[in-house]
Amino acid sequence: MSPSSQPAFLPQFCFSTTALKDFLRLSRSAIDDTITPNLNALVTPAQAGFDPSSSTTLARPVHRHIIAPGSCRTFRDSVLFPSWQSRSDILDYCADVATSPDPDDPEAVLRETESARDRDRIIDERLDPYSARFSPREARTQVLAGIVRSERSRRLLVFDGDEEGVTI
Prior knowledge:
mainly alpha, 6 helices
């Protein structure tokens, strides 16, 4: 994709984890979950016309429909790969955002306050064995990094890390 045609991503899109997850989920459901119906739509209708005797039996025909290789390549190159590439681009961008400093983090002050309060606590485990527990809030960059890792893991499970092996 050329730099002028690449959409401009904003960090707010990545930090809106609901929007990011919804985009990825909708992209998968619109493209990945419809591969079979889309390929079936590429089958050329019967060239010989309708045969009335074909409706006299309940058995399915044993012959398989062959999809034109050019149609498959076009579908793969114009629908599948661009969609997968846009998802990869967004995940790469969000991974960069997750590893960059976040000076605009709205919860940074709150996390610092909680950490300071935790350091000042007096812990007596004899009175309360759970008093030493402290669960700090995750920075939004850490949350985003977790989402990106999860999505990349899902992608590796589906593609086994090799989109070039997709043959249609």
